[in-house]
Specification:
Radius of gyration: 14 Å
Number of strands: 6
Strand content: 15-25%
Number of helices: 5
Order of helices and strands: EEHHEEHHHEE
Distance between the termini: 14 Å
Length: 120
């Protein structure tokens, strides 16, 4: 997910996939995590030709979060709506961390590879 501003409006786009059982036991998100991050970033990069994009939550603006399906469908939509209305990124991150099984923030260092660092 990405916490961003698009054309002056807050947006919290999501992308996702169900994980195979072996991915649940893995230490990190592996290639699937990198693929999901790339897909999300490319979608929004393409849209930046029409409206400018801006990160809202600094280094924690791009997140890869593992959520059980029942939490994602029942608890994530109101959390997303609260953030879209309030813009309170700290409260959003705290509530999301309580829902998440585990998470990573996506970081890119100058002249370095994309890194998926533990979050929160």
């Amino acid at each position: 997910m990405a916490l961003l501003e698009r054309g002056g409006q807050r947006a919290l786009p999501l992308t996702g996939r169900s994980l195979p059982p072996q991915a649940l036991a893995a230490d990190g998100p592996g290639s699937l995590g990198h693929t999901l991050a790339l897909e999300l970033l490319l979608r929004h990069w393409q849209q930046s030709a029409e409206t400018p994009l801006r990160r809202i939550a600094s280094d924690a603006s791009l997140l890869l979060v593992e959520l059980p399906l029942e939490r994602m469908s029942a608890q994530l939509p109101p959390l997303k709506a609260d953030w879209l209305n309030s813009g309170d990124s700290a409260a959003f991150h705290q509530a999301l961390a309580a829902l998440a099984v585990r998470g990573r923030r996506i970081e890119l260092e100058p002249h370095g590879p994309v890194r998926l660092l533990p979050w929160p």
